[in-house]
Amino acid sequence: MSKLTVKTIDHVLISIPIGSRAEAVNFYTKILGFDYIAKDHTPTAEWFQLGDKQLHIREEENINNSESNRHLALVVENLEAAKTYLESQKIDISRSTKIEGRERIFFRDLWGNRFELVEIT
Length: 121
What we know:
Helix content is 17%, strand content 36%. By secondary structure, the protein is an alpha/beta fold. The chain has one domain: 2,3-Dihydroxybiphenyl 1,2-Dioxygenase, domain 1 (Roll). A four-stranded mixed beta sheet has the order 1-4-3-2, with helices on one face. A three-stranded mixed beta sheet has the order 5-7-6, with helices on one face. The longest helix has 11 residues, at 21-31. It starts with 10 loop residues before the first strand and ends with a strand. The mean pLDDT is 89. One of its GO terms (molecular function) is dioxygenase activity. Keywords: Dioxygenase, Oxidoreductase.
């Protein structure tokens, strides 16, 4: 084998501060509407289903998410509706450089993890 052959992304893991798992489960299920995956996996993380991909969160010490540009990008059907909804939940929205063929916005969760929402045009 001469190179790594990647088929797709299975999951992304992001960090939250120690002691905030219950609040995180509430945020991701109630505010963002992600489906919670019942515990039959590692006891130190929480898992959520997003279409055919997964988001995993894990409590960690000494994280500094609010200054990082790393992010998870999610494709949405209607970016304007998503923006309006997030703003109604008092979530700040930011924009970045224009990319032809895709409209996008960014937001951070309660722990500073950055998310991008993309509408392919």
